[in-house]
Predict the structure.
Amino acid sequence: MADVKTAAYICKGCEIDKRVDVAALSKAATKSGKMNIVREHDFLCSAEGVAMIQNDIDNEGVTHAALCACSRRAKTDAFNFTSIAVSRGNLREGVIWIRPDTDAARETTQEMAEDYVRMACAEVKAMQVPQGNQNTGAVKTLLVVGGGISGMTSALESSKAGYKVVLVEKTGALGGWAAKLHKRVPTREPFKAPEDNGVSDLVARIEADSNIKVYLNATIAKTDGAPGRFKVEIAIESGAVANEDIGAIVQATGFTLYDANKLPELGYGKSPNVVDQAGLEALANAAAAAGKPICRPSDGQPVNKVVFVQCAGQRDNSGTHLPYCSGFCCNTSIKQAMYFKDSNPDIDTVVLFTDLRTPGNGEDFYRSAQNKGVIFSKGVVSDVSAAGNACAVKFKDLILNEEVDTQADLVVLATGMVPTSGPDLDQLAEANRVAEGGGEEAKQHVVELMSKSVLNLTYRQGPDIPHFKHGFNDSHFICFPYETRRTAVYTAGPVRRPMDIMQAQEDATGAAMKAIQAMENAGLGKAAHPRAGDLSFPTVRLEGCTQCKRCTVECPFGAIDEDAKRFPLFNESRCRRCGTCMGACPVRVISFENYSVNTVGSQIKAVDVPDEFSEKPRILILACENDAYPALDMAAMNRHEYDPFVRVIPIRCLGSVNTIWITDALNGGYDGVMLMGCKHGEEYQCHFVKGSELGRYRLSKVGDTLKGMNLETERVMDLEVAITDIATLPQKINDYAALIKSFPPSPFKGF
Amino acid sequence: MSDLNQKMAAKYQNNFLKEIEEQAEMGEWVKMCMQCGLCSGSCPTNFQAGWDHPPQELFMMIRAGKRDEVLKSNSMWMCTSCYNCYVRCPRKVPVTHVMHGIAEYAYRIGQSPKNQPTQHLSKTFWDNCTKTGRVNEVKLTQSLYFKDGIGSGIKKAMEMQSVALGLVKAKRLNLMEAVGLSHKCKDIKGIHAMLAKANELEAKRQADKAKA
């Protein structure tokens, strides 16, 4: 580019000028950084300082600016220059706040500051101004899959926010499970009695809403495209296909009850008087319709005693049944016990539980049931068998520590929720592999798995959202609920995790809001969470691509498909800008305008590496910008000091680390490289879900490289960092620095 | 079995929870227990050794219909009325009062354990202090010491001799009480009338309950 003009700005505020020699920093920016303009300012983030920069942009034609002041996480509003490329040199949190103000420390502190100035200059010169994704679509219609409580709530909330909604329901009526409930657990004060299920009201509101288009008896046949420009084919009852342009998707496909036929020991299938919770709702509805009390199915006689068995086929550690708690069933049993007590207080209702869990305002409901005379016993049921028209129930009373035999007219099993989350993608991939060239049976297996697909995405990575735990489509449950590994597809309700109606409605509202954000951002060519608003996007130099397919396989969000010539085809709107593809690419042809192999590589090279006799080692830290870098910033705010020989470079995700950076650093004479990324695995905290895991997998291969270079393998260290590790992180850095100092200096210095 | 006990057992048949709810004072709270065990955990008496059953277990036994075991249990009599459980119960069950209610009911229908020391103390104390409106300390002590016979009574009295002498010296104990020259309240008749009325009211209430 012909008209690149670079500038470095060095702030003297926040006592930077008292701690370091600012004139020397300017000199570093001019001589090593080779910046066209270098300016110092007493208070760079002040209106006056910002105006100075703006003036240079407007009148001097500055296109690239290195702002050497505080952390890139600070003063982002003041330093918001969208028309130019900007890098930040972290002199405050990165240098003066983590170093002691002593004469002995002055020299190393100054070296640190000069390095950060040089790094900022080098980085900005390798950057371009992000132009925003041009390959975008501006459709603002939301697709909601599933017409239960969650789906209807999502549709209504989106409509309220002014968006068009297409609601697809596979059965012939809206309402889902909730429509089958005789009554629901109370939702408002005083939480004492079951209330109307509220479905008819929601359905009426949907039908009256001109923003919402409903397809009944319909499924999603195909979902193609990307956020803001999804092309969805909906298979409707007549066999015809309806086409809809969609901006974002909420998947609210709910659950089915765990199959009680798998619980013969609890009498299901052996006696008609053993039912699951849905079975009891049906009995209650039938009884209400006939104007009679609930009767036992075997002979239609009135029920005198009911036993509710909690955790039937749930919270099972043996691996046979569901390992988790579904969370709604205790309240449901309490509600169902009230069906009996409210009609006739003399009916014995016993709830056998091991841990009664009543989330929300369920505690008031529980108390109300106790007041009505429902008996709660802590016990584990071992056997239910038919005894004439009654059932014999064997259980161990855990309070009185004894085996008890009792009789009941009706036994209700509280089975849990199984998500309707589509096929498991790993299973499907394996089935596909077997079916390739395999027999008819193997092919049939693929068809069977595909028949379970909900979204039928045309993505290379599979037709649905990847499963998380126990088949649920959950994402990180605290930091970013609703998020999935398919951009602009959000999950809500029990498909995400087990929950009750109230939670599902809250969930559905949240997911709808996220989906609207995603559509809007996609329309503007911006990224969605966690780099919301980021205008950069990955570009690939196809002439260098070897078609190794690593990027298409590793992208945590399935953003990369394959074109007809088997080159990677980037769907920028699906991309979250984590850079995992960039880290994966062995030929390094993938880059972002403001984040590339070069922007980090040039920073690594910009650091001044003293010779081996100086006793000043250099340690490179690549720190994840989501957790590790903020933790370091907060450590600085708390004035936790750490070693002056480290140089920290923020990275988007551990997954974006290209091993060339490590090799370059070691070849360049660095004595060690430390990588800081989020926790991975089942309890992951990675903001890009799989990024840190993939990054770590790649790092596990670095050991061989080190051995090949005749270096100690401990020189490269991978550290798991959470954002809360504020106090411990500096200590870990110091421990690592001490370890590096115990090794001889890197033999690559000076080459 | 006493008549009343048989009558009650017949009346409620297998529904002991209902019997406690209707007959024992504060018995209606038993169903509200949620088995958290905070009462047992808070109890400062060493109930593991001395109690037949901790409170929440006793409540569970009532719900499980274990009539004889509950009524004959010594647990209710071991309570020192410190009110720790009462204060801490997350369900606001007045555990202390419920225990007393069950104890009183067991005593009333003649099912409480015989020779239970606390029960004996309660009865002795009550009879002693209602006589004159004030406690006759010497006689109270005597009847407690000699509960198990003359030999053990003398032994206990000898053991406590120095304490008694100290109390006398400090004029906290009047030995003349032994011969009936005790301090009494000014209006003994009034006290007796008051107690008689209270007894009458309570008897009526219980008769009503038994009838209902």
Residues 103-125 of chain A form the longest helix (23 residues). The first strand of chain A starts at residue 6 and ends at 11. The radius of gyration of chain A is 31 Å. Residues 425 and 462 of chain A are 6 Å apart (CA to CA).
